[in-house]
Fold each of these.
Amino acid sequence: MLTADRVKQRARELGADVCGIGDIRYFADEVPEKDPKMILPSAACVIGCAFRIPNGLFECMAEKRQYVNYLSLGPKFVDEQLAEIFLLRMAAFLENDGWDACVQRRVTNLKAKGDKTQNPEVMDTYELVHAVPVSPDKPAPEVMIDFARAAKACGIGTEGLSGSILTRRFGPRARFVFIITNAPLECDAPMTENLCDGCGACADACPGHAIGAEGRDTWQCSVYYRGAHEGNPYLPDGFLEGDPERERILRGEERFDADSARGMYAKLRFMPDNEGYVPCLCGRACDSACWHHLKEAGKLDV
Ligand code: SF4
Ligand code: SF4
């Protein structure tokens, strides 16, 4: 008989660092466009797994020694390769036992209709503006679950002010995948502790002042993630030469919306991209500041 312990053991064998199982009832008030039951109507639970991103990749960016390995082994490899192989093998494990497994990896370059945010990690995103429901009882495709809410439901993480999902083991230095299944597994308690204490270290660390009381402005972030700031070691002398706003931009004082951010992207090509992922030239300073804060506050299980 398939049990929660067997599922978690298999997840660990296949490379997950953290695994939790969330009761589908936790999503009872979710909007249809993000509801796991709109993906698998017979769903009984959501299995959530986290994969660590090595601390060393963040630390060498913080010291401006190396960026290229975070680009390929941080967001890209975990979300694109590791997650896919892991999810397919977990799905086979569940389906061999007779259950359905709807595997969910992070959708990097698509935005649901009405979602006007950006993903700073990729070259650009596409909003599914033409999506329409095929019947009155269905939401418009694509249904995409809220990863932060799912992590909380599975008891493995909570969203911080920075917008990153914080875990007890890795703080914000982890990536997530989920499996919606009708396997009747014993569920974990949702995470009630809020790891984010509102310290503001993430906001102070961001060179683009992209984090405020309302969270992270993803368009502002997308400009400074690509390196439009004084701390970018690849900045050429002639960068933005003749632009009257050059100094304000470099100091992170200029504000960018979707149009003005996209207008900057072509000027922010300091390193080659990696199959649609852009180099992280802010060093993920927000997440590093958060990790050190959580560690010093004794909130990490390390
Ligand atoms: S530090 Fe980087 S990733 Fe974090 S909010 Fe600022 S620009 Fe975005
Ligand atoms: S740095 Fe502080 S405010 Fe920002 S996400 Fe982490 S705990 Fe929350």
Amino acid sequence: MSATRWSNWSGKQKSDGQVQVLAPVSESELSSVLADPNHSGQRIRAVGASHSHSRIAAPDELMVVTDNWQGVTGLVEPLGLPQPDLSGPARMEPSDVDDVASSRSTSDDLDQSSPIVRVKSGTRIFQMGEPLWHLGFGLMNQGDIDRQSIAGAMSTGTHGSGSTLKNISASVVGARILLADGELAECSRWIEPELFELARHSLGSVGLVVDVDLAVRRRYKLEERLWSEDPNVVMADIENLITSNRHFEFFWMPDRDKCACKSLNELSSNDDSATSVEPIEQHSKLHRSGWSHQIISTLRHDLHTEMEFAVPASSGPACFLELRVMILKRFPDLQWPLEYRTVAEDDLAISTATGRPTVTISVHQDVSIDDQPLFDACEEIFRRHDGRPHWGKVHYHTGADLARLYPRYGRWWQDRDRFDPDGRFLNSYVEDLRP
Ligand SMILES: Cc1cc2nc3c(=O)[nH]c(=O)nc-3n(C[C@H](O)[C@H](O)[C@H](O)COP(=O)(O)OP(=O)(O)OC[C@H]3O[C@@H](n4cnc5c(N)ncnc54)[C@H](O)[C@@H]3O)c2cc1C
């Protein structure tokens, strides 16, 4: 076992001091983290890729690195699904996949018949693309980047864009979690439903996630278009842009007052007419296309920190306009963009999209600059629009503020405390969000 000082991707967040580090390589090593008397009573924090901008992954005492616990295990049946016909195979084999893919999943909508893959919790999203493709599948959607771990993405409600596409947590249909009492619990909508509800936005504070079962769909190709546009033109047509594209988003650049727009639309899987993953220019737009895992996410090399709020979709245009006016007046030299995306409504207790079609707006700032003046000014506007802060990004909301935004927030905490009465899976950051 070693010790280190944890910091996140941007280097902006650091643990208060040195923390002990474990990097289990097997399920039995993961289990022994809880059984080991040397760690009894210590606060445990699993970390994925440490890409959260908030201190949600900051370990207080013991950090469990999941980089040695990665990989797509394969197709599985839903955990706890009542099986009327017990004579069928317990697990599907890869050879069954074509049949499953054609019969089970033909759209973005997650339904009970979607194929399900089991993924080890430390698996980065980019490590899933090829193995899933070989099985005949693709993820429903992805975020801007694919460097996150699946457990980290699930625990904070990571999302991409698309008014019919939900966040990653909503694609999770089961999980295996080591609880504070050392038990390895399985959960899904059919077994331990309260634990399942907690797990899908675990905030790292429920247990050590071992595996995640994800609903996937038949593999698919996407065409990307990128173009530059005046923000007034974009906002005059925003509803059409959102509804006529599978995925639409834009980055507004304050220093130029211009929008970099991006759309993604599905191609037929047999369509080889434009299969270049490198961009090609056509009519002032850049085009590229390929399989979903090659196209949706991009790399972000420039270190930054970020605030993001989810507002009701109907408030998105007004909220963006207020932010734009404020930033042009008070922060005209801001060199970092605002990003405008959509997320479909879900019914998860503390999802930022629960109960309402959603627009997310994120604000970026350079890591070398004090972000608080900009973020304070933006949060004031987000609050007026009933904004819900992204769980993995910077915000200044208290537990009482969050309880006002989520009717089931108090219940989430009661259930969490039941599974972890001594708070071994809390850290000081999440503890401060208690209602
Ligand atoms: C450049 C960049 C781009 C981003 N783009 C997007 C985007 O497009 N959309 C979006 O929604 N977000 C985005 N984010 C935010 C990011 O997706 C989330 O913060 C996500 O949680 C990061 O995943 P991670 O693996 O780094 O998790 P970490 O930051 O390491 O951890 C997040 C939480 O998950 C918990 N956790 C991790 N593994 C486990 C486990 N095995 N068991 C229990 N708990 C665990 C941690 O304790 C912590 O509470 C971006 C962040 C960056 C830096």
